Amino acid sequence: MPIVESNKVTDSKAATTPAPSAAVLVLEDGRMFRGRSYGAQGTALGEAVFATGMTGYQETITDPSYARQLVVQTAPHIGNTGVNSEDAESRRIWVAGYVVRDAARRPSNWRSERSLDDELVEQGIVGIQGVDTRAITRHLREHKTMRAGIFSGEAAQATDKELLDAVLASAPMEGAALAEEVSIDEAYVVEPKDHGWEGEPRFSIAAVDLGIKAMTPVRFAERGVRVHVLPATSTLEDVNAVNPDGFFMSNGPGDPATADHQVSLLRSVLDEKLPYFGICFGNQILGRALGFGTYKLRYGHRGINQPVMDRRTGKVEITSQNHGFAVDAPLNGSTVAPEERYGRVEVSHVSLNDDVVEGLACLDIPAFSVQYHPEAAAGPHDAAYLFDRFIDLMADTKSKATDENSTESKTEDKK
Q1: Binding site annotation covers 390?
Q2: Of 109, 39, 122, 42, which is closest to residue 73 (Cα–Cα)?
């Protein structure tokens, strides 16, 4: 049987799924839920959160925004359709641990290539099955998300006090700088021609990977936009080197209060009047760049059924979300940004569940963002128009620049 410590499988034959052993989920307030091991065996520590999606578990566990989190699936049956090589949203599974009620004994789907259990073992992800995920979810809703640990195999044989002490010694999500941990090391390009676009690219953008999901650059490429995906540590020189028509910041994990480098980079981009679009973490970074603060939500928004209103159109969208932090900005009307050089800003989108800021729109510079995931992998496609809105913003900005240059040229000719 492979030996697992902190999600690392040490046996070279890790893909051999071990027989289930006793397992326990321990929350930092002392609540314990006992079940059986799922996936790799050992210890997993992180923040316990719940995700309400009924489908898309493979996309969920491969979303880098879930780094250092133990994901509790509220849907009771998990693993029914197995996993495949096409649906992963990044290069690996990022959840620190996985909590399910009824794990499928075997997958049954024409696209399945292997079982979820085997995939968890292969990647060293410690999980637990056979627990009451509804009770866990209610507990987290009532008492907030919190640090937790999954212990199985030999690790589960420790005393309750030893297990709780291990959880209490783990790092909290507040103050966690994780974007650099999940980002790429080398830049790459996603070409429109590889995703059904015929003809030359319409625009080119620089996209900073703070935990980007694979489908995001694809959604741009399908619309004729060449995407230069850059590491989280990129500088303004790196951005300008690809001569972009627009600038994008992706979703990602961790506390936005730690993203000082990305906030500084975005301010430099905004100062150059380069069109900007951000999603999730990118929304929080725009908020900080404008001078607003951020704060941690009680239990966050995670799932593919979150209702949001676009205040510009009055339309309600059902959205895919995964965030535990939010922007602290005035909800009603436009206001001058605390960083006054950026002019007026308004909250463009708002959650219909709890009035959390779900989008920002700058009125005097070409920049906007949303807190949710318009790429919808998995999830509804209600918000796909946001990619088109950004393309329109780049086109409008380029047209205005052309008109201004033409006017300046005519003025010089008259002289």
Answers
A1: no
A2: 39
Q: Any catalytic annotation for residue 381?
A: no
pLDDT digits (tens, 9 = 90+) for 80-134: 999 999 999 999 999 999 999 999 999 999 999 999 999 999 999 999 999 999 9
Helices and strands: H and E segment counts in the chain: 10, 22
* C-beta pairs of 381-385 under 8 Å, 24+ apart in sequence: 382/317, 382/318, 382/319, 383/308, 383/317, 383/319, 384/219
CA distance 176 to 370: 22
324 among the known binding-site residues?
yes
Q: Is 368 annotated as a binding residue?
A: no
Q: Would residue 375 show up in a list of annotated catalytic residues for this protein?
A: yes
Of 20, 246, 223, nearest in space to 117 by CA: 20
Judge contact between 165 and 42, C-beta under 8 A.
no
Single out the catalytic residue among 139, 228, 323, 373: 373
DSSP H/E element including 97: strand 97-99
The answer to whether residue 280 is catalytic is: yes
322 annotated ligand binder: yes
Q: Is 281 annotated as a binding residue?
A: yes
| pTM score of the predicted model | 0.92
Q: Confirm if 56 and 378 have CB atoms less than 8 A apart.
A: yes
Q: 260-271 and 281-289 helices cross at what angle (nearest 10)?
A: 70
Report d(CA 315, CA 336) in Å as an integer: 25
Catalytic residue among 139, 280, 317, 323: 280
Residues 371, 357 contacting (CB under 8 angstroms):
yes
- The beta-strand segments (E) located in 119-219 are 126-129, 146-152, 188-190, 203-208
Phi and psi, residue 256, nearest 5°: -60, -20
